[in-house]
Amino acid sequence: MRLRADIPTAAAMPASDEAAALRREVAELRRALAERDAFLAGVAHELRNPMTPILGQVERLLGAAEREAPESRVAQGLAQLRWLVERYVRRATTLLDVSRVQAGQLALLASPVPLAEVVEEVVASLSPMAAHVGSAIAVSVPDDLVLSCERLALDQILDNLVTNAIKYGDGSAITVSAVREAGAARIRVSDRGIGIPEADQARIFERFERAVGASDGAPAGFGVGLWLVRRLAEAMGGGVALDSRPGEGATFTVTLPLHA
């Protein structure tokens, strides 16, 4: 096949022109990513903001129902509705946090945080979701573990990890545990589900990546949860690691500093 003489090929292009073309492509990609992050931030605000008055109304109705008949079907239904709205808000907040992390606008302020207390809150909020798929969540966290971190960031980390264990645990038992080790706390979230192939274990901590696709029958998601876990843990002086084999489940270990 003959090439037209007036169209330069990559081989014929001078090195300086090729470098300039690459720089332009990189700049265009960065602009596209910035526009996508700005779009996500706008979508997150639009999705989350209307839920605040709705959640307030649900809580008001639930409070009235629980005073009159705590065990009634109305009270139980409103409790479930509150959980669904709260989960919706958390998903929108995840998108907003992603855009803030990318823009360098997510400021984390460390303070003393009782780990067991936050774990209890997260597990209680996700118990209906776990029960729906047949999973039980066991907790083994010492009461004396006090972290130096931001409470909301810790909540986000635990929420993402436990939610993942529920999604991909295949109805198996889930364990949330923690130990003290050399001035830090090691927090483990384990399941006995489908596991993650070794080839995917580094990739899943990147943005918009998922080890299991929707075509595999797994629940759909944004693919940002584990990326956000890693970024939040690192921003608070810690990290996250994964131990998993296909068919044998997964254990995510988050390390965070203890309060001195």
TrEMBL record:
Keyword Kinase on entry: yes
Record bears the keyword Flavoprotein: no
EC number: 2.7.13.3
Keyword terms of this UniProt record: Kinase, Phosphoprotein, Transferase
Pfam families: HATPase_c, HisKA
Transmembrane segments: none
Top enzyme class: transferase
SUPFAM superfamilies according to UniProt: ATPase domain of HSP90 chaperone/DNA topoisomerase II/histidine kinase, Homodimeric domain of signal transducing histidine kinase
GO function terms (MF aspect): phosphorelay sensor kinase activity
Domain Histidine kinase: 42-260
Recorded catalytic activity of this chain's protein: ATP + protein L-histidine = ADP + protein N-phospho-L-histidine
Name of the protein in question: histidine kinase
Source organism: Methylobacterium tarhaniae
